[in-house]
Specification:
Layout: H1 3-12, H2 20-29, E1 38-40, H3 43-53, E2 57-62, E3 75-79, H4 82-96, E4 102-107, E5 113-122, E6 126-133, H5 138-141, E7 144-148, H6 153-162, H7 180-196, E8 200-210, E9 216-218, E10 221-225, H8 240-246, E11 251-255, H9 264-274, E12 280-284, E13 290-291, E14 294-297, E15 309-312, H10 322-329, E16 333-336, H11 346-362, E17 365-367, E18 373-376, E19 381-384, E20 392-399, H12 402-415, E21 419-424, H13 433-442, E22 448-453, H14 459-470, E23 475-479, H15 484-494, H16 501-510, E24 514-516, H17 519-531, E25 540-544, H18 547-559, H19 569-576, E26 589-590, H20 599-608, E27 615-622, H21 624-637, H22 644-672, E28 676-680, E29 689-690, E30 699-702, H23 705-724
Parallel strand pairs: 11-12, 11-15, 12-14, 15-16, 16-17, 20-21, 20-22, 22-23, 23-24, 25-26, 25-27, 27-28, 28-30
Antiparallel strand pairs: 1-4, 2-3, 2-4, 5-6, 5-8, 6-7, 8-9, 8-10, 13-14, 18-19, 18-21, 29-30
Helix pairs in contact: 3-4, 6-7, 8-13, 10-11, 12-17, 13-14, 17-23, 18-23, 20-22, 21-22
Length: 728
């Protein structure tokens, strides 16, 4: 029967599931390898069919209501003769009762490896394809991977490789390696089914047995039919050109300006002016008067000049009245700092919805509400609730948590990481995370996109937008609400439920998004992506000032999926001319305590030039100035006389050596297009990013080997994704 007619008949009969036999018919149409089987209605017919197949066989109860057969004792395995079949049929009939419509006879598929494949519909991302370890271990171990449909053959192969238990697919205890083609065909078939048969909401193939010959066979299948849940109503997209205008305002109106320290209306006023804003700033407060010698207007209508952006700190109840004032004044953009909307629950959500509708009717676009503000260092525009002025740069940052976003800006300022623009997106009543991502895609100044996300409103749009941008520039994301407790916190904070974290992470990996585990990862990755070339592979050369650090870094590399290859004879011969005869001749290269400031640069070039190296990590070769100063201070404290000229000269020597080393590393990165990442020896005052004049790259060094290796591993993963997408 035609697949669509089969489903239509089931729905007409009021069923919510296909029978197992019907399910396998549908799966077979999509190229999924299913077990040979026959539907019979009498035990005697089951015996006859078993003789045709050859014993042993499997006998199952069949019926439209029998969706959980194992639990009801309706599956009998390894039946070796006619008597076994008759006995099994009697028991099945007794257990199934009136729900029994027939029997299903199958050859007994022998195989000790069982997997699971399936399809379900996520409320945010729609149809999701799943593959993993099956049988009784499916729920116990949870070794499954996910992809958003559609899934290509290449993506299906990656799903298979991601399984922790993927080694079971190799030759195993005398059984042949699994036929990869069967597994890929199953995954891709489910993806096609998901796109074509929208009446199907769930498919479960468990187990998908790998036989001793390596062939995969679906021996049990369940298909649920019904209506897929409608996607959440999408926000109309905001065009990048419109959003960009908000970050380049020629004039501002601060509604709710205050002379009282600590109030939002005062903090924003102070920070905007202290940041060097060069446009017009109008202050509005119903009381009028003056603040810091500036005239305060009682209403928006009184402002004499044009206003590009209105910044609002008034209580939520007073905000709707501003819409007609903004419209009359011709103010098209509102930065709504005010909280008290959807994050408070149903009443707040309604107030937010009413405000958005009124704003749309008036042609006004709102950032927020419940935001900590925005900044654009390139326009000297720092409009945030915290005194923070990061330098100009190429990192675009959006955070759904304003506080976390401001902390990241503070860290960026301290670490020397330049910011293209920042926005605390708040409740995203009108402008959503997808709009910001799309704007950063179109912005040539943005080289890296950083996101802190607690929830998304349009999963499919987020996925497609992030995937499109990732092909051009890295998107680095930290997800809040990854645990059950975190989900609850996110819901109370943003007014929206966070999606299932495993599905969300799978969507991000499929879209090429680089996932961060903690806030500092965002900054580490932004520094690296904005300052270094991408690695072409995962082979790492390590040079260190001490052996222990080299061992630790090697272990970290292996644990993060990188390789530390042994040195080849040509590289050893080259380094033999630089280091003393007793050096180890191993990767990592230990500088054996040598403090000749030119030596590290020579060895660095030897390693970067090595054809079996894709990246270099150096440990302890920068940040030595602090150690030298401490050594001289200790000598003085012990009563020894240290000439001040010697003291100053030693400090200058190592400061210059560090500058020379970073200049050398950026020059080598230009020449060989390989990333070079450092770890400070002992210098908590040094910045992560070191600018090098006239170079497209920068010097990068972290305080710990863990941060360096983790960052490089993420860069390798992103580079691999780009190759898979044929973007490099």
């Amino acid at each position: 029967m035609d697949k669509r007619k089969l489903i239509a008949r089931a729905k007409k009969e009021g069923r919510t599931a296909l029978t197992e036999a019907e399910a396998k018919q549908v799966l077979g149409i999509y190229g999924i390898p299913v077990v040979k089987e026959a539907v019979v209605f009498r035990p005697e017919d089951a015996v006859q069919k078993a003789r045709q197949y050859g014993f042993p066989v499997v006998l199952k109860g069949l019926g439209s209501k029998l969706t959980h057969k194992t639990e009801r004792g309706l599956v009998r395995l390894n039946l070796k003769n006619s008597r076994d079949i008759l006995t099994a049929a009697t028991a099945i009939a007794r257990s199934a009762g009136e729900d029994l419509e027939g029997f299903l006879v199958q050859p007994m598929i022998k195989g000790r490896r069982e997997f699971v494949a399936g399809l379900f519909c996520d409320q945010h991302f729609g149809p999701i394809i799943m593959f993993g370890l099956g049988g009784i271990f499916t729920e116990a171990l949870g070794d499954v991977v996910f992809r958003i449909a559609p899934v290509s053959e290449v993506e299906a192969g990656l799903m298979i490789d991601e399984l922790h238990s993927s080694k079971l697919l190799d030759a195993f205890r005398g059984e042949s390696a699994a036929w990869r083609e069967d597994l890929v065909r199953t995954i891709v078939g489910l993806s096609r089914l998901a796109e074509e048969l929208t009446d199907i909401t769930e498919v479960d193939i468990n187990p998908l047995v790998i036989g001793s010959d390596g062939r995969a066979t679906a021996v049990d299948a369940l298909i649920i039919i019904g209506e897929r849940s409608a996607a959440a109503s999408a926000h109309p997209p905001v065009q990048p050109a419109e959003l960009k205008k908000i970050f380049y305002p020629r004039s501002l109106a601060l509604i709710g300006a205050s002379s009282q320290l600590g109030k939002w209306g005062n903090m924003l006023f102070s920070n905007v002016l202290a940041g060097g804003y060069e446009g017009e700033l109008y202050l509005v407060n119903a009381k009028g008067q003056e603040i810091a010698g500036r005239k305060v207007y009682k209403t928006v209508r009184e402002i004499p000049g044009e206003v590009d952006l209105g910044i609002v700190t008034l209580p939520a109840a007073h905000v709707p009245a501003l819409i007609p004032e903004f419209q009359a004044k011709g103010i098209r953009y509102m930065l709504l700092i005010t909280s008290g909307f959807s994050e408070l629950g149903s009443q707040g959500r309604q107030s937010e919805a009413d405000l958005v509708e009124a704003a749309r009717q008036a042609g006004i676009t709102i950032i927020g509400p419940n935001t900590m503000g925005i900044c654009n260092p390139h326009a000297k525009f720092y409009c945030t609730g915290s005194p923070c002025w990061p330098k100009m740069g190429s990192v675009g940052l959006v955070s759904q948590s304003g506080n976390l976003g401001i902390q990241l800006l503070d860290f960026a300022e301290a670490e020397g990481i330049g910011i293209r623009a920042f926005c605390g997106s708040g409740n995203e009543a009108m402008i959503t995370i997808e709009d910001y991502i799309r704007t950063f895609e179109a912005d040539e100044m943005t080289k890296t996109v950083l996101l802190y996300i607690e929830s998304i409103k349009d999963g499919r749009r987020f996925f497609s937008t992030a995937r499109q941008v990732s092909k051009i520039k890295p998107v680095v994301l930290l997800k809040g609400g990854r645990t059950a407790a975190g989900n609850r916190a996110a819901a109370s904070h943003t007014g929206a439920l966070a999606s299932n974290i495993r599905i969300f992470n799978a969507a991000c990996r499929q879209a090429g998004v680089v996932l961060a585990d903690q806030p500092m990862d965002l900054l580490d990755l932004s520094a690296a992506f904005s300052s270094l070339p991408l690695p072409r592979g995962k082979r790492v050369a390590i040079m260190t000032l001490g052996g222990g650090w080299g061992v630790v870094a090697t272990d970290l590399c292996i644990e993060q999926g990188l390789e530390v290859p042994p040195l080849t004879q040509d590289v050893i011969a080259r380094i033999d001319k630089i280091l003393p005869p007793y050096w180890s001749r191993e990767n990592p290269v230990d500088l054996v305590g040598e403090f000749d400031t030119s030596m590290p640069r020579k060895i660095l070039e030897a390693l970067v030039n090595w054809d079996q190296c894709d990246a270099v990590i150096h440990l302890g070769l920068v940040g030595r100035t602090h150690m030298v100063v401490k050594t001289l201070d200790a000598a003085r404290a012990s009563g020894q006389e240290i000439d001040q000229a010697l003291y100053n000269e030693g400090q200058k020597l190592y400061e210059q050596a560090e500058k020379d080393f970073f200049a050398c590393s950026t020059s080598l990165m230009e020449k060989y297009a390989k990333p070079i990442i450092g770890v400070f020896l002992d210098d908590t005052k040094s910045r992560t990013v070191t600018e090098v004049p006239d170079s497209p790259y920068r010097g990068i060094a972290f305080l710990t080997p863990e941060r360096a290796v983790k960052t490089l591993s993420s860069m390798v993963a992103y580079s691999r994704w780009l190759k898979k997408e044929q973007c490099r």
